[in-house]
Design a protein that fits this description.
The chain folds into two domains: about 260 residues, 3-Layer(aba) Sandwich (Aspartate Aminotransferase, domain 2), CATH 3.40.640; about 130 residues, Aspartate Aminotransferase, domain 1, CATH 3.90.1150. About 40% of the residues lie in helices and about 15% in strands. The chain has 15 helices and 13 strands. The strands form three sheets. The protein has a seven-stranded mixed β-sheet with strand order 1-9-8-5-4-2-3, with helices on both faces. A three-stranded antiparallel β-sheet has the order 7-6-11, with no helix packed on it. β2, α4 and β3 form a beta-alpha-beta unit.
Length: about 400
């Protein structure tokens, strides 16, 4: 069976994890702090905090901005449930909008229609590693500043809707010469096991707040907020005579460990020169092998302004129903190839349906979902494997379409 997306765990990663285990620091320590600095240097943003998940990062930033009951947060209907769940955790209202027909990303025209005086945050999602239209989104929140109603000093200071990018898929992607992480106010990455760059579990908040904000000060506040409200972490308390600490708020527990950071440091070191090169080659070969089949719609990975980080290969089949898509997938599975679907739209999930959301209100999202099949894409996928996958897809199409 060709798997869908196993992590790349080799001797170099194992050796670094062992070093971390033997170092005496297995929780947040020097490796985590180094990883944060290297991410900041790589992405070109202003400060970075590493956490135990992207989900924690999204929620902590909503809470930092004071998002709560009565507030609205705009997000695409085409995303994973975490994007919406964190809004619910804060007591705010998710406002789903539709996506572009040309790709899977949030439609700026739909965002504009959804903005009200209650809108506090927009959460674009870089689907599959393809950056959203950030110039247009950033310009939109500035143009709507007169509609914005600030409810706390931070919101007054920014004076507009916060753009909080769910960049879970897009570490290493570029937009107009800048890397994801430096494209808007705040971006949140995922380093989950299936991501391009993994720490087994983990994530990072890339702070890039505009002039008037001290991003290093925000970083320090987030360190407190994500460690029980404790004003010193374990590393700081090891300094001679520095054992005493205070709890300054009822914080959360979502710090990254040095064991996770050890994996991430290896992954980051070889990311551009090795990982992205291999993933691009895999995606390119898929497209070359499938481009002559008129039944398929190939994903977009590069244009004059953007380049994906090749996280997913989201193939769309033209003119099929959801039932046909599912049948095609079953035939592919039967050929010994694992495939997936990204994503089942959140408004169609039981919890959100029970709140009154209807996936049919987002026709482009529903259309994309009903005919999308994600093909295997991981570092060790060989050329022979890729050809096996393509043959399985074509054979399944021949049987169903």
């Amino acid at each position: 069976m060709i798997p869908f997306s196993p992590p790349r765990i080799d001797d170099k990663i194992c050796d670094e994890v062992v070093k971390a285990l033997k170092s005496g620091w297995i929780t947040t320590g020097p490796r985590t702090k180094l990883f944060e600095k290297k991410i900041t240097a790589y992405c070109g943003n202003k400060a970075t905090i590493c956490l135990n998940s992207a989900t924690a990062g999204l929620e902590i930033m909503l809470r930092w901005y004071g998002v709560g009951a009565g507030d609205e947060v705009i997000l695409p209907a085409y995303t994973y449930s975490a994007t919406a769940n964190v809004i619910m955790h804060c007591g705010a209202t998710p406002v789903f909008v539709d996506v572009n027909a040309s790709d899977f990303n949030i439609a700026v025209s739909e965002i504009e229609k959804a903005i009200t005086a209650r809108t506090k945050v927009i959460m674009p999602v870089d689907f599959g590693g393809w950056p959203c239209d950030y110039d247009e989104i950033n310009a939109l929140v500035l143009s709507k500043a007169s509609v914005f109603k600030a409810l706390n000093p931070l919101q007054e200071k920014l004076g507009r809707i916060l753009v909080l990018s769910d960049s879970a898929h897009s570490f290493g992607a570029t937009y107009k010469g800048k890397k994801a992480g430096a494209l808007t106010d705040v971006s949140v990455f995922s380093f989950h096991a299936v991501k391009n760059l993994t720490t087994a579990e983990g994530g990072a908040v890339a702070l890039n707040l505009p002039e008037g904000f001290n991003n290093e000060e925000v970083y320090s506040l987030l360190c407190i907020k994500t460690l029980h409200g404790q004003n010193k972490d374990a590393l700081a308390k090891t300094q001679v005579g520095n054992w005493k600490y205070d709890i300054v708020e009822a914080g959360y527990k979502c710090n990254m460990t040095d064991i996770a950071a050890a994996i991430g440091l290896v992954e980051l070191e070889r990311y551009d020169a090795d990982t992205l090169v291999q993933r691009k080659a895999i995606a390119t070969l898929y497209s070359e092998l499938l481009e002559k089949d008129s039944r398929v719609e190939l994903p977009k990975f590069i244009d004059k302004d953007k380049e994906s980080c090749y996280h997913l290969y989201p193939l769309r089949i033209k003119g099929i129903s959801e039932e046909q898509r599912d049948a095609i997938m079953q035939h592919i599975f039967a050929s010994g190839v694992s495939v997936n679907v990204h994503f089942q739209p959140v408004p169609g999930m039981s919890f959100y349906k029970n709140l009154g959301y209807n996936v049919k209100d987002y026709p482009t999202t529903l259309n994309n979902y009903s005919r999308e099949i994600s093909l295997p894409l991981y570092y060790d996928l060989s050329e022979e494997n890729i050809k096996t996958v393509v043959n399985a897809v074509v054979d399944a199409l021949n049987k169903v379409c």
